[in-house]
Specification:
The structure is a single chain. With 790 residues, the protein is mainly α. The chain has 3 domains: 1-292, no CATH class; 303-395, no CATH class; 580-787, no CATH class. 50% of the residues lie in helices and 5% in strands. The strands form 3 sheets. Strands 5, 6, 7, 8 and 9 form a 5-stranded mixed beta sheet that branches. A two-stranded antiparallel ribbon has the order 1-2. α11 (251-261) packs parallel to α13 (285-299), α12 runs antiparallel to α13 (285-299) and α18 (380-393) packs parallel to α20. The longest helix is centred in the first third of the chain and has 17 residues, at 24-40.
């Protein structure tokens, strides 16, 4: 009887005032609501009013307006183009718009869409999955939450699922929903959700498609304002176990209500709510922004270790670290440093990495030093997280990196593909080469390459190619990853950068898989790559195309269009280097060789992305005017030099016995014909010390140089000698090493293929010389140029 009365209290649409003459208004309203929802998506924006689910029912939810008005007045205002606030009824019975009989009038398509929304696979954010020995292995990024009991009140332990109950025990609960209907109190509803969340997992789709469950969710969303904070959090916790998809539109109402309540919640409630949203898999940027604001104003000084680490975890998963919290969080991190457990250190670094947040070098160093004391007890995931952040911050913590030389080879067979990739990528980004680590990863990769994503394969290839890891060092390494790329070609349509990164890594070590190159240079792929908004891939395309043209002369496959190549060429040639060390070398070379026409500062190979100083010499060693468009010059075409100190012949410097005696005799104090005295020490070049800080500007010339120069000078060859003079810097080399990184090593190789001799002004020689006299610098450049001729 009660149910019958309750049903009659809600008039049907055709009985409502204002709709009796024309029922199309409701359809218009529904259409506008659907359009608005489509535009807004599920981003969690707060609204003055929102459509409840399903939208076709014309039911509206207001997050915090509780005054009384009737539905007819709403329709009258809506007819005039006004969207008023629709309050919840003052009595529970008045709020009952959902009854079993009422559901009969819902369209089958609406029910189908609603059921589909409930049963949609959620974005399972945790845990991530890797593969070890071909078997999927769960990597729990939330393992740190089990380090101390304090996390129990601010997080959800996903490993502690409620004890499952059978479907037969859930049916009475659903029937209870049908009986109570609008008479349900918030306490009843929260308890029902808790009990229903115990249902065994394989029966969840059956539950979410049941009409009484749909009615329960709709009714709860309509009256969220009547729930206490604890009751609302309990319902949200139940939604985690009920596996409600994060994108489900019903969750917009929960998001709006919780955003409104942020200022009324305790620190633990705020952190727990944020964690529940994370477990559901829904992005709630406005809630997080409100949470950070409240913490900054009221709670930042109250956080203990668990609260601090959990806050950082939330920031990392939300991909945002508020500027106003950086300093307070850094202070708290240093304050609680001695209390951090190994897995908490890993969680801290992962959060900073995901939120792309740079804290002070001092703070990073302190935390890494703490990690060094725990390195043997840290999980593989925690170690990888530390390396991720060191890669992002470009910080060389030598103790940690040296420890990895022992830890990585020991752990490599227990690491999945993604872990291997991140380790290799971190060392590559830091330019820290360690043969033990590289060999351990290279021997491991072929057994797991079949499970590589295109991202994993491409970044492994890039990292190893960047180190110049040769194919014969591990014969199966490169072939296994090349095959892995071939198996993932469809992913390149969505992630074109992956193919180009992998190919560049291969080209660095002279590997040219022609089928993948043909794909990368095909018009369709080039079009996709040029439309990529995440990265500018033009330079990568240009580098691949230019390398193929130089190193595969037999290539008949696709190439970049003439128009695109011309555009990229002009862009590269317009890049003017303004580095002091390059400008100084250019100026001195002009003085040395007789004028600006003998030195050309340009990208000799534009696809290699760096500028050199080009100099042409004839067979006798005398400079020729540099015309990049033509390499055919004769000695007669060369003008007379204007510099008084150099040469009495047509141009350049005459290599005479007196000149070499001045350069090579230990007791001579005057170089060339200059009257200015120079250093009286022995002329030689000193090796850079371990820290690259103590350099000497002294030069070394072998005893046989004079005879070699004479023989070269007497040669009658008329072919000009093309020199590419490079001013190097430390970023081009492996850390504390003279080994060039991949792109620069490739450039040297290709310059030689193009007919150039490379003359390098090593930064450990040239940079200290910048503080010396012009005479010493000219002497250095002279010897560099003419020593390169033999």
């Amino acid at each position: 009887m009660a149910a019958s009365v309750l049903c009659r209290r809600v008039p049907r649409l055709h009985q409502l005032p204002g709709l009796s003459k024309d029922s199309t208004l409701a359809q218009v309203l529904r259409s506008k609501v659907r359009e608005a929802d489509d535009l807004k998506g599920c981003k969690g924006e707060p609204h003055q009013w929102e459509a409840s689910l399903p939208a076709q029912h014309g039911l509206y939810y207001i997050s915090r307006s509780y005054s009384v008005c009737n539905f007819a007045s709403f329709c009258n205002q809506a007819e005039k183009g006004v969207c008023p606030s629709t309050p919840a009824p003052s009595l529970w019975q008045q709020g009952n718009r959902y009854s079993v009989n009422g559901l009969r009038y819902l369209s089958s398509s609406s029910n189908a869409r609603l059921e589909s929304a409930f049963n949609k696979d959620s974005e399972s954010p945790l845990p991530s999955e890797s593969l070890i020995n071909g078997q999927p292995v769960k990597i729990d990024a939330r393992a740190f939450q089990r380090c101390r009991p304090e996390y129990a009140s601010i997080t959800v332990d996903l490993a502690q699922r409620p004890h499952p109950v059978e479907w037969q025990k859930v049916m009475p609960l659903l029937q209870k929903v049908g009986v109570l209907k609008g008479g349900m109190k918030p306490s009843d509803i929260s308890q029902l959700f808790v009990q229903l969340s115990h249902l065994e997992s394989n029966k969840m789709p059956l539950l979410k498609g049941h009409k009484h469950f749909i009615m329960l969710v709709q009714y709860t969303g309509e009256h969220l304002g009547r729930f206490t904070n604890l009751q609302l959090i309990e319902v949200l916790r139940s939604l985690v176990w009920l596996e409600i998809p994060g994108a489900h539109p019903a969750l917009r109402r929960y998001d709006a209500e919780l955003c409104f309540r942020v200022g009324q919640m305790s620190l633990h409630q705020l952190l727990l709510t944020a964690d529940l949203w994370r477990c559901i898999g829904r992005q709630v940027p406005q809630f997080l922004e409100s949470l950070y604001s409240v913490i900054h104003l009221h709670h930042r000084g109250l956080m203990e270790v668990a609260e601090l680490v959990q806050l950082l975890y939330i920031m990392g998963e939300g991909r945002k670290f508020p500027m106003e919290l950086r300093h307070p969080v850094e202070q708290l991190l240093l304050l609680h440093l001695d209390k951090l457990h190994p897995e908490e250190i890993g969680a801290v670094f992962l959060a900073l990495f995901k939120s792309q947040t740079l804290i002070s070098e001092h703070a990073v160093t302190c935390v890494v030093e703490k990690a060094c004391s725990y390195v043997g007890d840290m999980s593989n995931l925690a170690i990888v997280n530390v390396l991720k952040y060191l890669r992002f911050s470009h910080l060389h913590h030598e103790t940690w990196l040296e420890n990895m030389a022992q830890e990585v080879p020991r752990r490599v067979h227990g690491m999945g593909v993604q872990g291997l990739m991140h380790v290799a990528l971190a060392f590559s980004a830091l330019h820290w080469q360690n043969d033990q680590i590289l060999m351990a990863i290279a021997e491991r990769v072929p057994s797991v390459a079949v499970h590589c994503r295109s991202k994993d394969s491409s970044k492994l290839l890039w990292a190893f190619g960047n180190f110049g890891f040769l194919p014969d060092q591990s014969p199966s390494f490169y072939p296994s990853l090349i095959e892995a790329l071939r198996q993932r070609k469809e992913e390149f349509l969505k992630y074109p950068a992956h193919l180009l990164s992998g190919l560049l890594g291969l080209i660095f070590v002279s590997q040219f898989p022609e089928d993948l190159i043909a794909l990368a240079l095909s018009p369709d792929f080039v079009s996709i790559a040029l439309q990529c908004t995440d990265f500018d891939l033009k330079k990568d395309l240009f580098t691949v195309d230019g390398a193929v043209a130089l190193e595969l002369p037999q290539w008949t496959g696709p190439q970049l269009s003439c128009e695109l190549r011309e555009e990229l060429w002009k862009l590269a040639m317009s890049d003017v280097c303004q580095k002091v060390e390059v400008l100084e070398a250019e100026s001195l070379l002009c003085d040395l060789l007789g004028g600006e026409k003998f030195v050309c500062k340009r990208m000799i190979l534009p696809h290699t992305r760096s500028i050199d100083l080009e100099v042409h010499l004839d067979a006798s060693g005398q400079p020729l005017p540099v015309n990049p468009a033509s390499n055919t010059h004769t000695l007669q075409d060369s003008p007379v030099p204007s510099h008084p100190e150099w040469g009495r012949r047509n141009v350049g410097v005459t290599i005479s016995d007196e000149l070499f005696a001045q350069l090579t005799t230990k007791n001579r104090t005057r170089p060339f014909s200059s009257p200015a005295p120079v250093n009286k020490h022995t002329v030689h070049m000193e090796e850079p010390d371990e820290g690259w800080r103590k350099f000497d500007t002294r030069l070394f010339f072998g005893n046989d140089n004079k005879d070699l120069a004479r023989r070269l000078y007497r040669q009658e060859s008329k072919r000009p000698i093309k020199l590419a003079i490079q001013v190097s810097n430390r970023n081009q080399f492996c850390y504390r090493s003279r080994q060039l990184m991949g792109l620069h090593s490739m450039k040297r190789r290709q310059l030689k293929l193009a007919g150039y001799q490379v003359v390098e002004l090593h930064f450990w020689e040239w940079f200290p010389l910048l503080r010396k006299s012009r005479t010493e610098k000219r002497a250095y450049l002279h010897c560099k140029i003419y020593n390169s001729l033999y």
